[in-house]
Amino acid sequence: MSIRRLFEGLFLVALFVMGVRATLDADMWWHLRTGEYIWQQGIPRLDVFSFTVPDHAWVTHEWLSQVVMWLVYQAGGFAGLILGTAVLVLLTFGLVYGSCAGRPYLAAFVVLLAAVTSAIVWGARPQMFNLLFTAVFVFQVERVKDKQLPLWTWWLLPLFMLLWANFHSGYLLGVVLLGTYVVGEAAQQWRQKTDERTLPWPIIRRLFVITVICFLIAALNPSGPELWIYPFYTLGSSAMQAYIQEWHSPDFHLTFFWPFAGMLALGVLSFVFSQRRVTFTDLLLFLGTGAAGLLSARHIPLFAIVAAPIIARHGLSALAGTAVHPILSGDVKEPQPTRLMATLNVIALVVAIVGALGWAANQVAENETAVAAQYPAAAVDFLQANGLAQERGYNSYNWGGYLIWRGLPVFVDGRADVYGDDFLFYYRQAFDAGPQWRAPLDDFAVTYVLMERDSPLLTVLAASGEWQQVYQDELAQIYVRMNVIE
């Protein structure tokens, strides 16, 4: 085994290790229960988990992701979900790596930065499939532009789109990506500033046809053409923009957003010093996804995937003529390793793989502890032991999914699109302990309140004389109406 192969192997092992993490995503719980419901009873059209909005329509745009997650859980439990997430990370950024120039060394550096940048949303959640399909589309187009894949492979994109539209409503990004390539390449031809990667007019027209087919074929899902407009409901939700953290703009005072800032800066520098002409396509893709990431942290991983090949290509060009360029470009031919060196390289890779599996096993072993530290497991045990679990409760938005997993009817959970803006603002009346805090609790005859310890609402309940604390631990508190206790 050569040094180059060892490096690539260690790079892939590193991606896998980065993807191994505890099952802490707040929405994972209701996704699993939804997958179970679909597997057993079919796709629901109305809410089936809350006692507050059972008449609200539910567009289960992630239905296939949820079924897959449930089947993985059935087969391997939470360990299966942890390892499955790591495999999705490996596949996604393996494709990004394959889309980059400068393999293995420069490409690996850029892709690792992209992976760290995108890690803010990693977890056992359908969005991981969204990232994978984004990487598939970028890989297909970039490899054809580099003449490393035959043109006919583009006809696979509608098939991938058919899957994507049933895995996640983020499928629209695939249509936008292809449309951006069409516009960028057409502008390049129109301005007559072409290079060896610019698509000729006949191929641009073919890509336009494929883009239209991808858009149309996305309607082949259980919700039909309604899925064409569904993403705009999410993007236009004022409640989601206001209250859900991952929809907020990134706060660069927080260190986990610094890799995003680094990718933005590295991209700008690569454009400035590149000896290649910066194309309209590169500008549209980089600036478009970069602006989306600045608008909402949820979009940062999409920027990382789309921007990585652009940064690698122009970064490599900027280094042309330097002593490191032949190495970073992968053009230097390595000497044939001796038998001893090849054996040592194999041993090093095996040790790395064994270490990665050991790390994964340790994460699996500690998963239950990590879940108990973030979710009210003991508080739910108390509700079940005292006959309160099936009563109407007012719960934290962040814990709604976990309560669904434990079989409790919920006041609210992470399915913001199901509840709608009006209801979420109504829910916040009590959550924020505003002047009308009693209304949500009284209107729905709430028996108990389960919230994070020292939440503002709990302070108001304690002072009201109408509620009494019956449970408390380091994470959660439960208050019950006085008449229930009596």
In short:
The chain is mainly alpha-helical and 486 residues long. It has helices at residues 3-19, 28-41, 63-99, 105-118, 127-145, 157-167, 171-190, 201-217, 226-235, 238-243, 258-273, 280-295, 300-318, 325-328, 339-365, 367-374, 377-385, 400-405, 416-431, 438-443, 456-464, 482-485; strands at 393-395, 448-452, 467-472, 476-481.
Helical run tally? 22
Q: Main beta sheet, described?
A: 4 strands, mixed
Mean pLDDT: 94
The arrangement of helices and strands along the chain is HHHHHHHHHHHHHHHHHEHHHEHEEH
Q: Could you give the order of strands across the largest sheet? A: 1-2-4-3
Label the overall shape. Answer: globular
Distance between the termini: 75 Å
Indicate the low-confidence ranges by residue numbers. none
The proportion of residues in beta strands is: under 5%
What's the domain count?
2
Structural class: mainly alpha
Helix content: 55-70%
Total E-strand runs? 4
Rg, nearest Å: 25 Å
Describe the overall structure:
The protein is mainly alpha-helical and 486 residues long. It has two domains: 3-328, no CATH class; 375-485, no CATH class. Helices cover 63% and strands 4% of the residues. The protein contains 22 helices and four strands. It has helices spanning 3-19, 28-41, 63-99, 105-118, 127-145, 157-167, 171-190, 201-217, 226-235, 238-243, 258-273, 280-295, 300-318, 325-328, 339-365, 367-374, 377-385, 400-405, 416-431, 438-443, 456-464, 482-485, and strands spanning 393-395, 448-452, 467-472, 476-481. It has a four-stranded mixed β-sheet with strand order 1-2-4-3. Helix 1 (3-19) runs antiparallel to helix 3 (63-99) and helix 3 runs antiparallel to helix 15 (339-365). The longest helix has 37 residues, at 63-99. The protein starts with a helix and ends with a helix. The mean pLDDT is 94.
